Amino acid sequence: MSAALLQQLQAQLESRAAQGLHRRRRTTETACAPHVTVDGRALLAFCSNDYLGLAAHPAIVAALQEGAALYGAGSGASHLISGHSRAHALLEERLAAFVGPNLVQPRALTFSTGYMANLALLSALGGPDAELFSEAVNHASLIDGARLSRSAVRVFPHGDVAALEALLAASTAATRLVVTDSVFSMDGDLAPLPALLAACERHGAWLIVDDAHGFGVLGEQGRGALSHFGLCSPQLIYMGTLGKAAGVAGAFVAAHELVIETLVQRARPYIYTTAAPPAVAHALLTSLDIIGGTEGDARRAHLAHLIARFDDALVLRHWRRLPSFTAIQPVVIGANADALAASAALDAQAIWVPAIRPPTVARGTARLRITLSAAHAEPDLDRLVVAVRALDAASASSATSSSETPS
């Protein structure tokens, strides 16, 4: 019997590989940075979410070491038992103050990961008497959180506020939750948050914004997407991650204090998990200092310069760029095999850009997901542009030759 079970798994894995969907891990041997050593090879990386280049910042590394000396290696228990340290409390106070100008009576709550934060949010606020309206290309954590919430789930098309408005108008649910990413992680575009919030305010719904890829980068002093759009409402619930632009690890939810207290009392992913190490929270205090200070402004300005330079330089003949002014710059190729081949061709030139395939993106839209960082220099960017343009030109020539070949 055991052999048959293993054979079934083997067949499933082989089927995935045949569809170009097999994933593999690579082992980095150096700190997260543009120039890394991976499986023994030196590579120029355009694949991390370290948008401000803070993951290996000396001051944050020193703060992490200091935090370990002060608090030890682990928290020892969940937040509601004995794991909530002074470092966690300080970080939550700082986060609430940092994003607070865009919220009403703000309070913040930290989590070990963004995935956990989203599961906690939707499962605690949703339920059988709730209706949840989810953006079509939301992150997997929001999709899974919606399933876990036991709410009725309605999916509205990407960026389609009119469709959402119609769904909200037809809803009779006691609780209505609209859920969206701010920056969409595979496309790089922004949700129309002002229009979404206006619709929520007209129909008495909460607007939950996952700002994983906006916090630290967008808005005044990197305060995020709500700041970028100048939004403020008691109906806003904000989730930000701390392992991307902030350079460390974890996530937080910020909202009206009653929302946060509801999570403390009801959110199972918060209640029943060991708190993150206090040293991580201690390091994040230094990260926030950098993000909100003059160095953070300089890093965001350099990143914006790189994005504009990339936009001007990468003109494609065959493949398709998606419009994005964020650090996420996708190049849509189409077939899974073609995207894998393009990624492999870049790897052969010691450039690391991942191929993203279904189900992460829609079938037929496999792509190179290029991510830029403030730690990249202009020569890094120029090297990438030259390589991608050459591969695109070769692909265009191959497609032309194929179309001209007599059948």
Structural account:
By secondary structure, this protein is α/β, with parallel strands linked by helices. The protein folds into two domains: 23-52 and 295-396, Aspartate Aminotransferase, domain 1 (Alpha-Beta Complex); 58-291, Type I PLP-dependent aspartate aminotransferase-like (Major domain) (Aspartate Aminotransferase, domain 2), CATH 3.40.640.10. It is 45% helix and 17% strand. The strands form three sheets. A seven-stranded mixed beta sheet has the order 3-9-8-7-6-4-5, with helices on both faces. The chain has a four-stranded antiparallel beta sheet with strand order 10-11-14-13. The chain has a three-stranded mixed beta sheet with strand order 1-2-12.
CATH class of the largest domain: Alpha Beta
> Helical amount among residues, as a percent range?
40-55%
Q: List the total number of helices.
A: 15
CATH overall fold name of the largest domain: Aspartate Aminotransferase, domain 2
- As laid out across the biggest beta sheet, the strand order is 3-9-8-7-6-4-5
* Overall average pLDDT: 96
Q: What would you call the structural class?
A: alpha/beta
